[in-house]
Amino acid sequence: DKGVWKKYDWTVKVDVDAVFIPARLKQHLDKLRVPAGAKVYLENVNYRFKFMGALEIVSREALELFHEQSHTCIRGKHEGGEDFFMKGCMDAIGVDHMIDYDLLHDKYAANEGPCTDGWAVAYH
């Protein structure tokens, strides 16, 4: 851990098989009006647990809290992918979330959209 993420307001994890359009993310963040210093992650798709790992967006403050307290989440049996674990852990340690179900078009969530829609941040 070199702490590079601490230099940025947001950390974005994108799957290698996803298409990510960074300029659109800024538009989405502007529309959400996330309060300065908010400890939040963005729910990105209206499917299952609402935080698909193809696109994970977490504020610096939320990631800092996760970095400090994630050890408290590593107890017992863990089932699911890293996205399921991370969302559950962030919820448990008090990280809030905001909703933008237009961030991700994901074939696994049955909400594939044309990549020409001009609004989604990522396609998977």
From TrEMBL:
Phylogenetic classification of the source organism: Eukaryota, Sar, Alveolata, Ciliophora, Intramacronucleata
Protein's recorded name: Hexosyltransferase
